[in-house]
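The aim of this short unit is practical: by the end, you should be able to scan a pair of folded records and say something sensible about each. We start with the first protein, listed as its amino acid sequence and then its structure tokens.
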Amino acid sequence: MNYRYIFVLASGRSGSTLVQGILNSIDEVKISGENNGVHRRLIESYSLLKRAIHRHAGFSHEVETPWYTIGKANLEDFGRELRLAFEKNILQPEPHHKTIGFKEIRYNFPTRADLEHHLDTIREIYPSAGFVLNTRNINDIILSNARAKHAAAERHLRQLNQWLGEIAGERDDCCLVHYDDYVANPARLKTLFDFVGAEFDLARVNAVLARPHSSVTSK
């Protein structure tokens, strides 16, 4: 396997659960479902600590200072323990799982730079991490969200779908998969399997595609 960790990023109703199922068709891979943005908050806590150390460590030696002892904070250990706690308590891999991760749709960042910073921070904590970015025809995403009565703002859906496509073309640690493409021609998923480092089995992929996943295939 090329990566120990795989993170699937997508907007809601874009086929991300189907991508989750496709990746889980690989024997040594376990991709969990959503965690309600818990992991994003862990990453943000690491970023906040890093910023505090950078800005205030030089003024934290005296007990009278407002940032007392922040300069002694161990950022590397903090990040490592966040990763291990998330892996142990949420991802819960089995010994045979060489690649683990999860898919999430809660990425309503205000700017593309904020999203990219999030990915960069993940790579600091998870050095062997890859990102699978899933997109879909934006009008179908919007329509499916409306049918499912999701509260996602159309502006956020449009932004994220666009940003994922752009970012995937600029980073070596990203693989773009487009729902409309792989549903029409499952063989196009070979690039995903090459990215993960797994053998592509078209029959196994077709078996996954034949099963409903989050009902997105019927909407």
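Turning to the second protein, read its sequence before its tokens, just as you did above.
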Amino acid sequence: MSKYTKMKTSFTDKECLVGALREFFPEGSVEVFDEPTRLVGFEGDSRAERAEIVVRRRNVGRASNDIGFAREADGTFVFFVSEYDRGQYNRQADTRYGSTFIEKLKQPYAVRVAEQTLAALGYRVASKEKTRGVMHLVGVD
């Protein structure tokens, strides 16, 4: 049984985080809860770790555990990922759910935060364009 690691993130907006995660997982696989729910290990065992945003193990990988995000007292989300899925036992997994996964989530998360901010200011995003890895948003009122 591989234990969970708790990774600090800078994500604070639940809606934007869920939207970003949905770019990485199939339709319907990102579950959102009002109250934290227990994560499940690869053998179907309920774990002590709880999260409000969960991707079930069947959507993570063949021998994987659930992954999840839980809100901390300071308003940020922490990422719960097992040692296996983080890549400690499986080198390929780190490119999927280790620190590189969090880095990959940052751009779609930031785009959603920017869109939300523009909307609050009375603008809408007219276009998005990615150039050399950088996302450019064009807002109009």
